[in-house]
Amino acid sequence: MTLLNESEMALWHVWKRAQDTVWTRVTAEIADETGLSDQDFAVLTRVHEIGAGVLRQSALAALLEWHRSRLSHHLTRMADRGLIARRQVDGGVEVFLTTAGRDAVVRARPVHAEAVRRHLLDAIPASERAAFERILVGLTLSAGDR
Q: Which of 32, 72, 75, 102 measures 20 to 30 Å from 89, CA to CA?
């Protein structure tokens, strides 16, 4: 197997820096405006958007691709802050948004949208967005093949 050549390595480093920069800026703006961590936002948006406010904890773990214990610990911290609550149901646990959690995600979503536009989308010319999306979709689809 051959090592990356100079131009391949340069592209790899540019990709890592760009991804880290966009991610850091978006998550920092959400945290600054709402007090939500990246993980809080991930949980709240999935419960809000996919579960319409209620979602099985096992389904949430699968959506986030988190180990069950990691999710359980994080949900405990979120429950302590009044963002979510949990209840036992047949065959598992449901996670549901509290009023505070619903209010937080409703406040955070426009912050997220504006930050994504400012730090990512505005940097991609409209004429190149479809190609950029195809490349990224191709990367995510082929990731399971590796």
A: 102
